[in-house]
Every structure is written in C-alpha cells, then in structure tokens.
Amino acid sequence: MAQKKSQRLATAIRWLGTILATGLFIWLVAGQRWDVVLQKAVGIAPWAVCLSLAFYVVSYFFNTLRWCLLLWAQDVKISFWQAFRLVWAGIFASNFLFSTIGGDGFRVVGLLRYTTNKTMALGSVALDRIVNVTAMACLLPLSLAMFGNLLVAPMFAFPIPEKLRQLFRRSFSKITDVLRIWAAQPGVFVQAFLATWPSNLFPMAATYLIARQLEIDVSFWQVIGVQTAAYFINQLPSINGYGLREASFVTLYSALGASIEQASTLALVTRFLSVAATLPGALWLPASVTDAVLNDDKLVDEARQP
Q1: Given 113, 182, 250, 278, which is the most exposed site by the fewest CB atoms within 10 A?
Q2: CB–CB of 120/74 below 8 Å?
Q3: Which of 188, 72, 64 is nearest to 120 (CA)?
Q4: pLDDT band per the 50, 70, 90 thresholds, residue 108
C-alpha cells in the first residue's frame, strides 16, 4: 500500500513538473511573432535537416557501443545490431514515458532474452547511464563559467529536499553494488567513457548546425554549454524533459544574444528532429518486450529506480 502511494506521488510530481515547465515555456514565447518563427523554420535548408537527423543516428550508434562494451565484458551473447535495436526502441519509448530514463526499462526487459542474470541486466543499463552522466558532468564547469549566476543562483535558491537526499543515500549503495560486477575489468570503464563523448557531441553538432541555419551567432563551445545545462535541467521530474528543455533553450540562447524568435524556433525544431530520429525505433519495439513490460510491473519498477 505504501509503495503504491509512493508511486502515485512520484507520478503526480512528474506530471506537475511537466505542466509547470511547459507553462513556463509558453509564457516565455507568448509575446513573440509566430509568423517570424514559421518563416525561420521554413528557411532551414533540407540538407541541414537531413544531416542533423544523421547526427542523431550516429549518436545512437555510440550509445549502443557504450552499452555493448559493458555487456560483452560480462560475456552476454548479444550482437551489436541486436543491442542497437533495443537502444533505438528504448529511445523511442522515452518520448512517451515519465522522466528521461523511462526507455531504460525497455532495454532491461529486452536484454533478458539474452541473459538470465537480472541483476547484471539492470546493472548494465544503470552503469551505462552513470557513465553518460559522468561524461556530461565533465562539461558542466563550461556551462557554469559561461552563464554564471543564471545557473548558480537557482541552485542555491532551491535547497535539496530531505526526501531527495534520502533517495541519493539509498541509490549510492545500489551504484556500489553495480560497480562491483565490473570491478575486475577497469579497462571497460575507460572504453565506455570514451564512447560516450561522440554519443553526446553529435546531437550538439546537430543543434549547432540548425542554430547557424537560423542565423544565431554562437560558437560550438557555446552550444555545448547550453546543451550540457539543458541536459541536467531535463533530469528534473517531467515527461522526457518536455517544456524544461525548451524553456532552458530560450533562456540560455537569449542570454547569448539570440532573439526570442530564434531561440524558440531552435528549441522547437531540434525537439522535432530529435523525436523524428527516434521513429524507426517503433519498428523494433517487439511484442515480446511490450508484453513483458505489461505483465511484469515489478521488473519495470526496479528498472526505473535510480
């Protein structure tokens, strides 16, 4: 009973986060000229759109490589193509699930077709996520140096709730348990960490390409700074970061000199492209995985735990 109540509370918080963030974004762009936004979006060259989509697909390739390195180190008999389909399907599913890691549950369930070790399956996805967050954290000082109090002030304005601190303490022991599985193969961590960089930089390159098409005068380093900040903002409770990402793009790119119309067009177009790039994943959302998710709520709940 207590667990169900906790789940309902978590769901309510995520919905609230999404609604508030979306409301903030609407408020930010309500006064802009939408005819200008449409004109700017239509003016993006088709080759730039195609190349941006290709960048997203390449990033999925490196996401898969990072995960495969962890799986192969534990002798999981899964091919790169099989893992690639699970990753793409999981990214597609994340568009419609709570938080930005909802699709990870699909990966866990799908992986159980290739291994009977549930702990290792959960651990591989959790560790894959940890490696990616660690790499992004390395870029966070760039964002802080670039935007200063625009990012630092809110951090001090909203203290960490006690419930969140307790969650971190519980999660820390789980993270330690996961790390022990791969502890005998430290080289794998280095390989996975290196594979993380192109998986993150290619989507940033796609954003930079669209930004230049919209005549936003920014450098690639500034795009990295914005997207890194947006990445961590997106971790707040929401549905795949909807609203949060758009609001952060408008705020931060405006701080870099872009107009509200340019910043909001960039946010909307890149959101559309990122979602469009995931659509082939729908073809690889096998019925067996869907059935397993529907019939094994306990496993999915475990997969979503930090």
Answers
A1: 113
A2: yes
A3: 72
A4: confident
